[in-house]
What we know:
By secondary structure, the chain is mostly beta strands.
Amino acid sequence: xxxxxxxxxxxxxxxxxxxxxxxxxxxxxGPIPPEADWTKITVDCTDTLNAVWGAAADDVWIVGEKxxxxxxxxxxxxxxxxxxxxxxxxxxxxxxxSNVFAxxxxxxxxxxxxxxxxxxxxxxxxxxxxxxxxxxxxxxAVGQDGAIRHFSECWEAMPSASRNLWGVWGTDSNxxxxxxxxxxxxxxxxxxxxxxxxxxxxxxxxxxxSSASDVYVTGEAGTVLHLSTSGQWNPxxxxxxxxxxxVYGRSAxxxxxxxxxxxxxxxxxxxxxxxxxxxxxxLEDVWYCPSGDAYAVGQSGLVLYHRFQ
Length: 309
């Protein structure tokens, strides 16, 4: 997700929208031979890519600042899909390959049913930054000015947090966290949202966990927090001072963090390793498939790939 506020422009003609978008983001090729731990994937897009999520190693989605154009990997090649919105998209998550949600500017929510993307709703707020759900009928979206939206049978507003929210994740419908500016962490217990002490004033951007008692949060200036079995958020020293924007893992002992300056950190259960990416461009998000396939996306259309054992 993009870690700054941007107002998307509105084009009144769908044909004009498609012309300019397709001109800026063409179909992509396969991996370029690697010169680092991570391989650069060419998707012919020069705009910032904000978020990545996949249903499987051969079904990966990327959203970004070209708004309605999504990049999709089908196991053989990267192709373009149109989300039927001209808004910039910041976050993406799916309950399955046939039920994927993307959120973005002006509170837009668009959904993929396995065949086509269709706009579900357009809230009267500036931005939704991230989306996550425990199922396809229990989905949370968070964004600017602390906005929180929830989908069950329809999308509804929930009480807002006090500051911008950048990331959301949970284990089930009764245990959801959202993180945001100035160290903000809020928790949903199935009934209400409560602000909890994070121990930092740094802005927080990404969140992921392997269980309810093993949760990581990433943020500004190298900030990493870990929620342990004690119920306390403890700082983690990864050795990085970069803004850390995204986090995803396969297990408690196999976690990836991405960030600015081309930073990618990997945790193997005993320590953090700073992996070579061959770039200084800012990375915005990372997704890690159970198969070991991992993607990181960011500035200037950057897509990085690595296969872990």
